Amino acid sequence: EMIVFHALTEENIRAIAGMMLGQVAGRLKERAINMAWDEAVEEKLAREGYDAKYGARPLRRLIQRTVEDTLSEELLAGRIALGDMVQLVVEEDKIAVVKPQTPPEEAGALPEAEVPAPKPKKPRTRKPKAEQPPEAVSDAPPEKKPRTRKKKTEE
User: 8: how many CB neighbours lie within 10 A of its CB?
Assistant: First the structure.
């Protein structure tokens, strides 16, 4: 059986870039941070992340290097906090992370994330010990089994 793979088009690569950015946005949303981007970002990633020999594989590394690493640095530096809105833009032929000055709804970006309420913890209860029949209960210490050691054999 022969399987034929067709080369990815620029449109395919752009769609893959959008899906990968969506995955990053989903991970940020878990931390109550919203991320938006425009088509210029997808186009730049598609253009730089495609290789005729390797297909879209370099795209994952490009997104890690240009988007995820930059977001991590911004988070660690405290320039992005929980509840913030960030936007990816192309500035001077590089992808930059900016915090929009206008509210996200006015900018046409994603709405702010709702911080999920913590799940209530269930109280831990111990199961009562099973009752032992009266004949099994004894004040005598349990019998100890004698220990046996294996003898080393010399060869």
Answer: 16
CB 63 within 8 Å of CB 20 = yes
CA distance 4 to 6: 6
Q: What b/e string do you get for 72-95 counting C-beta neighbours within 10 Å, with b at 16 or more?
A: eebbeeeebeeebbbbbebeeeeb
Cβ-Cβ contacts under 8 Å for 111 (sequence gap 6 or more): 34, 104, 105
What's the DSSP call for residue 55? B
3-state helix, strand, coil in the chain (%, to 5): 35, 10, 50
Summarised one tens digit per residue, pLDDT across range 73-88 is: 999 999 998 889 999 9
pLDDT in tens, 26-52: 999 998 999 999 999 999 999 998 887
Mutual orientation of helices 10-29 and 39-48 as an angle, nearest 10°?
A: 120
**CB-based contacts of 51: which residues, under 8 Å, 6+ apart?**
57, 58
Return all residues near 48 (Cβ < 8 A) that are at least 6 apart.
62
Burial of 97 (0-12, 13-18, 19+ CB in 10 A): buried
